[in-house]
Amino acid sequence: MKMKTSNKQIISIAALLILCGCGSPKRPSVEKVPDAYGFFPISGVYLGQTTVDELWDMGYKPDVEKDSYDCYIDGRAFYDNDKDRLFEKLFISYYSDTNDPTPVEWKEKFGFARELSQSQWLTLLKKHRLSVEEASLRQIIATTPDKSLKFKLEFKNEIKDKNTPSALYWLTIYYNGERIE
Question: Which residues, in sequence order, are bridge partners of residue 141?
């Protein structure tokens, strides 16, 4: 007995197989390379290497904005500003006094902590071979020696001097010359 299958049925079956992951081709795994300074990966994300699809595969749900992708993981925001499907920006906000989104790896390896004053941040960045391009009362901009990572630290408006503790408000890291906003 021969069964007749319509194109509509075939498409429905194919869609079900793709949705459940059955029979859909597995995306090839591309080996990631940690940056030369040890800042990444963070939460499995390598700036400039991790794709939107890979975050979906890891169980995260990147949001699509009209001109970018973003994904919030462990209190940190990763961005693909140029919509090339690679995440090249990390944004950490320190506005909440109850949660500290500083990656544990950074605390242990580099001594980074939200409680540091601007002077302490400057000392640590230089100690870890970052070149300080700008340092004012409100912000520090520093880069790795090969310029692959650019750090922008912004400090709270109410600080009176560079020795005020817990002054960090935002930390942004840009991959490979991404624009400083």
Answer: 134, 152
